[in-house]
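Sample pair:
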Amino acid sequence: MAAIRQAPDQGSAWSDDLAGWDVALVRVGLLAPAPVAVEADRFGRSFASFLERVQRDAGPAGPQLGQSEFQDYADGLDRAQKHLVAVMRRSLGVHRRTW
């Protein structure tokens, strides 16, 4: 998130490679129980949507994504990640909330 957040301030596009992360989500989707696979897919789609918006609006040619709007997207992504982790933990029989 820090690299994504800093790119507009530095006048550059965000360019980190997320191939390994994407592969991990695909593996979860193939190997995990159905509820976890569904949430992993939902999280992956949320993250992809977030990145598309940041890349479209944060570049030199596009309008700047405001800090407030960026934070709204980041907060939504944070909630989606926590929900995915909760579903993963439930699939392992861990029901205690830790955040």
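The chain has a mean pLDDT of 76.
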